[in-house]
Write a structure and sequence with these properties.
There is one protein chain. This protein has one domain: Rossmann fold. By secondary structure, the protein is of the alpha/beta class. It has 5 helices and 6 strands, in the order βαβαβαβαβαβ. Helices cover 37% and strands 20% of the residues.
């Protein structure tokens, strides 16, 4: 069981992701606003974050940039789940073996396998050398 932070401003998406992830026996906490992500990472110390790319007040890239400046967020694996064009996300997010991108609508089977891959990769992160886009 892992602590997973789910950050998205869309309530139906949050509900589906929370039901799926908690059904896979992970502990979840939800964040609905970009400004709440960094403080929640600091307090909750998640082992993985599912992050939307478009919030009303900030992009997922800006949110991730803030999180990466914190000791709790430096090595945090992140899975972007978004309807934003993948090329735009890739352009705005620094390449990292700790980042994956899943396009909406996301397959729950693919999400589950990606979560398990990221969690099992250990502190050094997944074996890949950069952002991996999964369909």
């Amino acid at each position: 069981m892992a602590r997973i932070l789910i950050a998205d401003d869309d309530e139906p998406t949050l509900a589906v992701l929370e039901a799926a992830v908690s059904g896979w026996r992970h502990e979840t906490t939800l964040v609905r606003e970009a400004a709440g992500v960094a403080p929640t990472v600091r307090a909750y110390k998640p082992e993985l974050m599912l992050l939307d790319y478009q919030f009303p007040t900030a992009s997922g890239a800006q949110v991730l940039q803030r999180v990466r400046t914190m000791p709790e967020g430096v090595d945090l694996p992140v899975i972007f789940i978004s309807g934003t064009p993948v090329d735009l996300i890739r352009f705005n997010v620094d390449e990292s073996p700790l980042v994956r991108i899943l396009a909406k609508p996301v397959s729950l089977d693919k999400l589950r396998s990606t979560i398990e891959e990221m969690l099992n990769a250990g502190p050094a992160g997944p074996e890949s050398q950069g952002i991996e886009i999964l369909k």
